[in-house]
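Dear support,

We are seeing what looks like truncated structure output for some complexes. This example has two components. We would appreciate it if you could run it in full and send us the complete token output so we can diff it against ours.
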Amino acid sequence: MISREVQLKQRPAGMPSADDFTIVETEVADPQDNEVQVVNVCMSVDPYMRGRMVDRKSYTPPFRLGETLTGGAIGQVAASRAAGIREGDYVQSNFGWREAFTAPADQISPLGKLAAPASAYLGALGMPGMTAYVGLLEVGALADGETVFVSGAAGAVGSIVGQIARLRDCHVIGSAGSAEKIAWLRDELKFDAVFDYHGADILAQLRKSAPDGIDVYFDNVGGDHLEAALFHMRPFGRIALCGAISQYNATEPVPGPVNLTLAIGLGLTLRGFIVNHFNHLAEKFRSDMEGWINSGQIQHRETVFNGIERAPEAFIGLFTGENIGKMIVALD
Amino acid sequence: MISREVQLKQRPAGMPSADDFTIVETEVADPQDNEVQVVNVCMSVDPYMRGRMVDRKSYTPPFRLGETLTGGAIGQVAASRAAGIREGDYVQSNFGWREAFTAPADQISPLGKLAAPASAYLGALGMPGMTAYVGLLEVGALADGETVFVSGAAGAVGSIVGQIARLRDCHVIGSAGSAEKIAWLRDELKFDAVFDYHGADILAQLRKSAPDGIDVYFDNVGGDHLEAALFHMRPFGRIALCGAISQYNATEPVPGPVNLTLAIGLGLTLRGFIVNHFNHLAEKFRSDMEGWINSGQIQHRETVFNGIERAPEAFIGLFTGENIGKMIVALD
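Here is the complete output from our reference environment:
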């Protein structure tokens, strides 16, 4: 079996471009004892991957040039020599950016019975959904009825954050980057207030949408969004530091907010996290989220690019705002 | 009775100067029913007061020009018409920056039996000591044996932070601003490592003193100290944001740390606080701290200026590093 795979040809300088990637073909080995061969159905591109393209120490080691990239993927087992895993089973793995692979069974996670289309397990039911869930409820320590601001609100994480907050009777404000996104958040997801951040005075928008201030800010963007939110937090507010997509392509150090000292008098908490810090909540998350999706309480939307050759384009699109909801590369 | 009092003549621009203050004389009224007349024994000058000299919204309203300043003071009751308060009793109040005053009994706090000299209740046993206590133990969520970095380590707060951490078997690193301070921290307070931040590469000092990183950073300074600490935090480290004395006299907005996004992958918590957020711990604090002081486990040191007319000089000295331990203005 042949797998087409995406490798990093050179490290992006600033905004990534198609030239930074290359497609190679690899022969996928037959599985040996305790191995499975998997054909990927879809793969994920996520903003965090930009960090791994830089050659520096971080919480995950950098991608290497000339090796196939990795990331979340959902596949179906094509051949199995591992106990309990059968042909046709859906499995989750970190062997994305490729069409197929063979790996030890302990490096993949059988998904069991699916409650939604497979790709949802890369989105609302996968890493981004769980990021929203733990970031809002655990890191943000959300209480019912609070005022929540989420940036990047039309993204894979942000759109789930806002909807969970709505389920908790919160007043939800979101920022996003296009009229289509704004309309979706307002009309379909029923956010209480939304604004397009392009050219906006973010602080003025927050003052208008949340006159009494913000209890929880879920930060996907960093930069001017974080600074504006800090200016408008209520006493004892919490800021969940999830991402800083506005800064991921910066080529110079980006100064932090000028108003971090406001945290002192207001007793604010800023807490960073990644989803892996909360693996102990994975089962509860899946159960809650499958319930919310099946009851229609949470909607999930995808922007789909078809074919492994379009994976770089899909990835770059994360930084130019191409996606509404989860960005998916379909491989079947 | 005549009280000499300090008023703000004009709002300081940048570093405060003696010209910003003026001394006035006021007649202190005799106490009426439920009032007490108090002669102050000593008064406090604290860095937070700089913030109140700026005309802006903050957690305490700004000082007004042409009114007597306020702040912590310890006095003795000279005359009382309030039940349960007798002549000679020591009381704590916010009627500092003056030699004497008359006030309703509910605006002063009787200190009861003193376990240390009265001025200690403005320092180790007062607001700065309790700031250290709640900031390290509650906000910093200190665990025994962790590695703690405290900036402004020779100050009223920092010197107590380091000593409490030592009592908890922690590895304690402190920064301070003079050879005399460094010697005191190293030789008397038994900090594990200390460095003079003047001209120092703070990050290099931290790497040397705490090769495995920092669990808790108690931030009194902000600016380059905070940025360096962020670069050297261990996973799930906590930063207690207590003060930012390096920025209090800034006349332009000061950018925040360039590396705040490190908090994401490391799961760091930055939490601001002021001591009033923890008033429910006041009794436990006093009991613990009196025990530590009486047993000699915690030392407290003061830098004393004598006379109300020197209060502005003492206050300015906070920003030029004149104090070792608590800065006190003695009034008796």
